[in-house]
Specification:
There is one protein chain. By secondary structure, the chain is mostly beta strands. It is built from 3 helices and 14 strands. The protein has a single domain, classed as Glucose Permease (Domain IIA). Strands 3, 6, 8, 9, 10, 11, 13 and 14 form an 8-stranded antiparallel beta sheet that branches. A two-stranded antiparallel sheet has the order 1-2. A two-stranded antiparallel ribbon has the order 4-5. The two termini are 52 Å apart. The N terminus is likely disordered.
Amino acid sequence: MPIAVVGPLSADAYVAAASGRGDTQSISVPPDATLQALSNETYTAVSGEELRAAANMRTAATFINDGNSPIQWPFPVGVPLTDRYGPREAPCGGCSTFHQGLDMTPGEGTPIDAIAAGTVIAAEESDSGFGVSVQVEHVVAGRKYVSLYAHMQFGSLEVTEGDIIAVGQKIGEVGNTGQSTGPHLHLEIWEDGTDPIDPYAWLTEMVG
């Protein structure tokens, strides 16, 4: 589309424009203005999906929790989801190239809730691997599942091995311990107690 190329504003015109004085609903184009075509050769439009792909970001829409459901998300409201289950480029030395969980980033210190009623089968204070972490065994529709909550803050654990806990019960707080690149909850769900499955897909189906 052609555009008018106009010389620089006079001092009086510049002051009037900057101060809001004058007629702001019209523009006066001098008779010696020239027309030039606006070229799109020097720029391109890039979608959000293309930007995320170029940066190797695998984000997803967040979630809606149901506080009355026997299966719930580990946070009462939706939070950013920063890495999904599946193949990926390892984000750090020693990190996996197949992500077996879901990374959630509500902010350091945010309380983490159990996704279902169950029994705590492991609770560890560590600064390697999963860091400060908890494993809870559940029975859902007659089938055994284990949920793993990793990289929590030191000193934030509120459960110990052998505890019987309820859905929505606080188990710890978001941290940055172990093999972690920033404060987040790494959540895994193991079907039959041993086989990692996609937590996002499973929770989306089961909650509510």
